[in-house]
Every structure is written in structure tokens, then in C-alpha cells.
Amino acid sequence: MTAVSNPKRTPVFRLLTIASSGIGSFVLGIWGLKNGLGDGFAGISMDMMVAIMAALCALAASVAAMSFFAGVDESADFVFNETHFDKLTGLLARPAMVGKIAEAACATSRTGEPVFLIDIDIDRFKQINDAIGYTQGDELIRAFTKRLQTCVPARALIGRIGAGEFAVLLADHQIQGTMESMVERLIDEMMEPYELSTHQQSVSLSVGIVAMPKDGVDPVLILRRSNLALQNARAGGVGNWSVFNGEMGRVADYRQWVESELHTAFERGDFDLHYQPQLDLPTGRIIGYEALIRWNHPERGMIPPMEFIQIAEETGMINPIGEWVLRKACSDARHLPDDCFVAVNISPVQFMTKDFVGLVRDTMRDTGIKPSRLELEVTETAMMQDRDRAAAILKELAEMGISVAVDDFGTGYSNLSYLIDFSFGKLKIDRSFVSRIDTDSSSGAVVSTIVGLSRALGVSIIAEGVETESQATLLRAAGCEVVQGYLFGRPAPLKFRLGEEHATDEVRRVANLH
């Protein structure tokens, strides 16, 4: 922004300001001379002295005024650039982008021509930045920006509104072809690997789209809704995009309610554990129970784990909740038959806490449970966050005599090298394979492969989600003899009779398959 571009400081305004400063200084100078020196000084007449002093004062005042206003202009330019442009990329910064969205909203209200805001986010950018270093992360952002500028229409406005998040604002007439084809092409081109100075870096994207005026005209609301669409796209998988709809707002409101209610629910004691039996098919005997958390809200009733576990992980509430689950499950295990163990699901966030092994050790000591009666279920995702640390944790748990089961096996990482590096005692076949085993030959082949892999590794195997006798029969034929599912029992709270050490016969009941 140049000096003359500020309507409050035109050239005439500046001239008047400088002149008034000079005149004021001149008058003050005369007044000082008249009162302080009288009619003359050192042989110089009063008239000459006044003229000299007036000239010096006017010159000083002019210089001071020019310096002041030049400084104001430089400061204004600095503030403008700091708040309107991103230092790293030169793109519009978030405050400036909000202003541009507001301008576009006014324009679309007058003309009726749709204007689109495309919210583009580099998935897991923080993890990428931490992994490759901030210098290389900055290089990636600059390369991403340069490519983005070539992939969008020439007159589209681009802003950087987050560390790895960008916004593109363009009118309907700027789109060549359909919005769908443009976005698909944009994602394909932006996900091509980036050649950095030290290595080649791949990224995945999520894209959210809103349309003005259909989705609103308030710039803050528009950005919120574009982010909701982006989150919905991210939930759909790698390289996905989504257009905002009203349901996303309701989902976000519900999510916000869950987040705000979690701590209160924990303090209030809303949570409880239900247990689902794990059955040995050849003997028909229950060998263990999986502990499953339940949230019974006093007003909204039962809230499924899938609706609050992820939010608990993101907010950090998973740590106190997870510790409570572990302690209660170990305490309840004392009331199970002596030949039964309890399986506890461990969140990836909880698994990677600073002293997870210490928590397990303290819990076992406090509850008096034997190591052989505790099994921890950990997902592939949890183990792959930090392979070295995960390997060390699993090794300590194995040395303590605690079995670890790889939960949802087959749905996570395709690189199976971790099976060699990690210490675990069981593979758990995911329900997505079990549910199709009697209708899809490929699922049956996958199950047989996992069973063979477990035997080669010398570890146990269990299948979850068994709901029909046909599935149980096929699993046993494939070599999987330990199962879990609705066919053998739904999750339920343990029931005790007063004064009894073990659970009632109702909990021990087994479905007869023979």
C-alpha cells in the first residue's frame, strides 16, 4: 500500500500539515526570542535573528513532519503486509482471505453468480513436518504453492489459511468444464510426488467445497462449513473431496456436544464395562472375555463407542478413560473363572503414552491379577506410530507375561515386517472378513492365509464378529478354533450373587454348536 493510496493522507493533506507545522514553529520561535532576548543579541538585529530562527524552525518542522508521516506510511505498509500476506508463500493470509470471501459474498448477492471456496488440506502435515524437519517442510509448502498456482484458473484467489491448509476462491465462470472434473484433476496433480532438495516427498489431500450464496454469505461461517466438508472428505479416505451439506453441520454440533460432555460424564460415572465371551470351538468352553466400554448418558441413553472414542483420543480424555477401563477390567477379572482371561482394548494414544508399561504394572499390582489373565488388544496403527518405541513396549509386556493381540488384523498396514520385529501372542481376524466368509471366496482365502501365517509365526488366532453357524463352521474348517461374536453371546455386564467369588452361570453360559 503506497502513501497516496491512503485516503486519509493525500498530498494536499500532507502539504497543509507541513505548512501548519512550520508556521506554528515560526510563531513559537518569535515568541521565545521576544521574551528571552529583547531587541537584539551579539550585534545582530532583531529582524535578522527572527528571520534566521524562523527559517530554521520551519525547516526543522518540515523535516520532522515528513519523517513522521513517512514513518507512519512505512509502519502501515509493514502492518498491512504482515496481516495480509503469508511470509513463506506470498499468498494471501487468513485475515485477508476472510476479507476476500466477504467481498465475493457481496458480489454474488448482487449478481447471483455462484462463487466457490475450495478448502485444500495436506493430510497429516504436522507429522510430515516433524519427520522431514521444518526446513524441508517449508520447502514442501513452497513447492506445493507453486504447483497449486499452476493448477487453478489464472484469476482465482489463493490463500494459505493454515500450516498445510490452502483456500481457493473462484467464480463459476472461471471453471472450465464441471466442478467435479476440475477438483479430481486438481487432486491428481497436487498428489504427484514433490522433488525436494534431499528426497522425494509424497502427500495426500483432502478437499472441502462450499458454494456462495447457497451455503451462506458470512465469511467466518463459510470457512467453518468448508472445513466441515474437508473433515467429511478426510473420513472417506485418501485423496477424497466433499461438498458441504446441512447434515455436516448437525454432525459437527453433535460432536461438539460429545466433546464438551466427556469430562463431565467421566466424573459423573456414566461409563461401564460390558463383556463378550471368547469361545474355544472344539471344547465349547469360554476361555476369555473382551471388555467393551459403554457410555450410558442420563438424558440421551446409550452412546455407542464409535461416537466418542475418537473424540476422546483427540481431546486427551482417552488417557483417564483408558486407565479406568484397564483398572476396572483387571478388578472384574478376579470374579471370572480362574481359567478365563480378560482382553482390554488399548487406544493408540494410550499405548504411546510416556509410561504405559508402568501403568499396566501398577494396575496388576493394585488389583492382584496374574499376568496370564490379562490380554491387551492393540491395533496395527498403534504399533506403527513409532516402531522402535512400540517394539520396546511390546517386549517389556512380553517379559511381564502379558499377551498382546494384534486387533483388526488385515485392515491396517500392508507391510508385514512388523510381525517379525514385534513381540505379540495373538492375531485377531477382523469382522469385515468374517462377515463375508460364507458368501465371498476371497474373504475365505484371506482368513485361511491369516490362519496359516499365525501358525508359521507360532502365535494364537481368534476371529471376531461371528454371527452365524455357517461362519463358525467355515472358520473351524479354515483352522481358526477360537471365536467371538453375537452367535455365542452379546456384550453384557457381569452379574454377581452376593458373597460369590465368581460370576453367575448366566455369564458362563455357552452356545452348544454340536
Residue share in helix: 40-55%
Distance between the termini: 85 Å
Shape, please?
elongated
Strand content: 15-25%
Tally of individual helices:
19
Based on CA atoms alone, the radius of gyration comes out at: 35 Å
Oligomer: single chain
Q: Mind summarizing the main beta sheet?
A: 9 strands, mixed
Arithmetic mean of pLDDT = 84
The secondary structure category is alpha/beta
Number of strands: 18
**pLDDT below 50 for ≥5 consecutive residues: which ranges?**
1-7, 504-514
Give the topology:
Layout: H1 11-37, E1 40-41, E2 44-45, H2 46-84, H3 94-111, E3 115-122, H4 125-132, H5 134-151, E4 157-160, E5 165-171, H6 179-190, E6 194-195, E7 200-201, E8 205-212, H7 219-235, E9 240-243, H8 246-268, E10 271-280, E11 285-297, E12 301-303, H9 309-315, H10 318-333, E13 341-346, H11 348-351, H12 356-367, E14 374-379, H13 380-384, H14 387-399, E15 403-409, H15 418-421, E16 426-429, H16 431-434, H17 441-457, E17 460-463, H18 469-478, E18 482-483, H19 505-508
Parallel strand pairs: 8-9, 11-13, 13-14, 14-15, 15-16, 16-17
Antiparallel strand pairs: 1-2, 3-5, 3-8, 4-5, 6-7, 10-11, 10-18, 11-12
